[in-house]
Amino acid sequence: MARRAKPFVFTLLASEIAQIHGAPAESNERAFHAMIVGQLKEGAHSITLNDAQFGQLVRHMSERASEFQVCLFRAFSRSVYGLLAG
Asked: Which of 8, 37, 38, 43 is a Cys-bridge partner for 49, taking CB atoms 3.0 to 4.6 Å apart?
């Protein structure tokens, strides 16, 4: 039986959450933006991503071609680098 992959959980600072809420998403980014913002409702500071969603996050962070992607880079850099450093 295959094991389920452990989800990626990121706890964001208030300043990082503000980056995400203030970012305008382009048409091809709106679904991802809505998913992220939806998890941050009601004062939540944590976001949980599955493998595919984490892949989307990394792709958006690495492209930095839109304001939303730059905001994701700024908001998640600390958490992603911490995850990779182990």
From this structure: 8
pTM of the model: 0.85
Closest among 5, 29, 9 to 82, alpha carbons compared = 9
- pLDDT tens across the length of the chain (86 residues): 677 888 999 999 999 999 898 888 999 999 999 999 999 987 899 999 999 999 999 999 999 899 999 999 999 999 988 888 87
